[in-house]
Amino acid sequence: MTQSQVKIDALPAFFRDIEIIGPAVHEIPKYKALHASLLFASSAKQNIEVTADSSPVLLASRSVKEIYQSNNFSQIKDMERKAQNDLQAIYTNVSQNGTNAWTKVRSQGKDFYMSWSDTGSMWSFTDSITQTAKKNQDGETTYQAKVQIGTYTQTGKIAGIHTYNLTLPTLLVESVVALIVAKAVSGIIADGLGFLVANFAMYLTSAAAELGLESFSFFISEALLATVASCLVFAVVFIGLAYLWDWLNRQYTIRLQIFNWDGDHDWNADGQYMSNAKISGDNSTFDFNLPKLTKPGNIVTPPGFQPVEALESVCYYAVIIWQNDSTFMQGCSAALRMQRDGSSDGFMWAFDCPRWSDNQQASTNGTSDPKTYLNNPNWNNNPKNFSIESTSSKTPINLALDALSGASDNLYNFIININKKS
Q1: DSSP 222
Q2: Is there a single domain that holds both residue 53 and residue 74?
Q3: Which of 132-146, 320-334, 339-353 has the lowest mean pLDDT?
Q4: Phi, psi values for residue 312, rounded to 5°
Q5: Residue ending a domain, choose from 237, 265, 283
């Protein structure tokens, strides 16, 4: 869908009391003129760190929560197909048209950017810009901008939000920051699952320059690559429905979805080991946090966002995509370690997708080195659906797999539900 095919004269029912300002491309000359008048353009390079606020968060209806927690892959795939219909036009528009896919809107005095259809939407919204407590190394004041990218499917009854923090050298208009991030995420979506995390910083830098901020140079520190990568995978696939299938041209693709339903504890994915596997984002590190369960009212959404059905179930979520690195007569396998509250308490998980036999998965209470675990994982006899108890509190961990072999698209889905009885 091109911008000319997108109706921008009316918003869908789940956004109310919002004024449509106009296409994002009409705002770019205004931003450039503003920044020129304020002397923001400078030959001096200004380095801006980019971090992810946390792992992505899902807001879902009660019925969707029950589908995921039951590991009912038939219902999950049906829900994803319906959500795909809601969002495909938006993902196509954003990936093909970049800036032209976004429209500036206003509600309650807040300007932000959206791309939408009758049944779905994406938005880029600056939650806040605050002065940081500390000055930078040159003694200058810096500002922390928190920008969220949100996706909502009306049929799927799911909203997903991933949030980025930008450490700015100067105070900017909130809508400027929202458009910079929207343009950068559009580039990542266009790259598909073959994206490089480093490209996100490059796209941010390019977007800022287009808006008259030529001196801005964004970077992501190596220590924070993993969390940013987890958010960018989510940007491309959301709940696993908007795959850019042109990239899925190898022998096997493994998707792992992890849901933290634990109301008392954070869980951290700390370390992995892969055998003939490659993870999306070209990210060799593996360290991200899934915060504990929160309440819907604790999640900030743009003004005017009113889902048709109440999204009363909230959890932090991760989706991880592996493919086999070498495709000649080889499958792939990997193991990861999950730790509770940053301690050594937790559990191990591993999968094996061999070339000539059935898929396997294993999970064991207690943590160890992922490479050691993958070499001797004690594969479960019922890999399609089993449970373990982890830590001294006997937290239930439920694990599921959709197919042992023969997936028509060579895509295999694993789910880990942490403490779904919380």
Answers
A1: G
A2: yes
A3: 320-334
A4: -100, -5
A5: 237
